[in-house]
Amino acid sequence: xxxxxxxxxxxxxxxxxxxxxxxxxxxxxxxxxxxxxxxxxxxxxxxxxxxxxxxxxxxxxxxxxxxxxxxxxxxxxxxxxxxxxxxxxxxxxxxxxxxxxxxxxxxxxxxxxxxxxxxxxxxxxxxxxxxxxxxxxxxxxxxxxxxxxxxxxxxxxxxxxxxxxxxxxxxxxxxxxxxxxxxxxxxxxxxxxxxxxxxxxxxxxxxxxxxxxxxxxxxxxxxxxxxxxxxxxxxxxxxxxxxxxxxxxxxxxxxxxxxxxxxxxxxxxxxxxxxxxxxxxxxxxxxxxxxxxxxxxxxxxxxxxxxxxxxxxxxxxxxxxxxxxxxxxxxxxxxxxxxxxxxxxxxxxxxxxxxxxxxxxxxxxxxxxxxxxxxxxxxxxxxxxxxxxxxxxxxxxxxxxxxxxx
Length: 406
Known about the structure:
Radius of gyration: 24 Å
Strand content: under 5%
Pfam family, one: TPR_16
Number of strands: 3
Strand order of the largest sheet: 1-3-2
Low-confidence stretches: 1-8, 65-86
InterPro entries: TPR-like_helical_dom_sf
Structural class: mainly alpha
């Protein structure tokens, strides 16, 4: 008979930790317990009950032919048969650190994501065969460019390395294929590879809200508005009230040609959730497109503070100072920064620089940049920027159509 200390070491406490044992979420663990006889124990207690599982029982369940048959029966797609492959650290303390890092990632702020990156790097050293930790590290790194101060060059290559390791260890992690799709689109500019990765992720986890969210985001950015908004709404239906989903849905709707309603939604989100940076980023874009240089500078200043990004803060101050010399000076300042980014950031397209030129009423410079982009064979998404260019300048469609060819 096992001793009390041995049983305690075997215990995995709570639905969240039980799901993490398989590299899945708490909802999946609850569903498997209900529908597939996942061995879970409950101890009643007042208004709440204690839920736990024993590690050796979960491992036996995975190995059992009954469990395998039930997994195969979920769908005719064979990829789903891989879902139950356990992926967890041996040490419960490492598992707890992993869950803490995941919580920090979901916090979507610069300090929390940097803490997650640091902790996950440590976990991969302590548990080098823990696939989910590598995938989570890749996710934290790509999000650090959006919510922190990392450039694409400092975020994407190490994220790719971590992701490849994670998927080599466990190719059945839906989150890994989702991150692969994200990197394929935003870094490799390979929409075909991105679609394939997201399809694989949805085969493995059809109801994953983050996969629908990220896929909807890239489809809308690529100009496929109907499909993109459809996936964003699917994510919204699974995870109602999610601020990130509502924010990207509003930007997709604005990019698709709506104006007043999505703008009001973004303003409400920024007011109700003032520390959520993406809403301020989209408002900064819309202010620039409207020729509101002061509003653009104000949103950049907020972004700089929230992301702890000294470069953004300095840029906002530079634009604000240039405004004291007039709108033309402010335009030259913003364009100078855009051209500097284009020259020094590999993988960046010319879309933002063309937009700035168009807003400033310099069509000749916009055409020059567009011709250069065509020569470089740039492939644009950035549907919101393209809309802004068309709102501010006419006669550019021949170049825009080539750069945004679907």
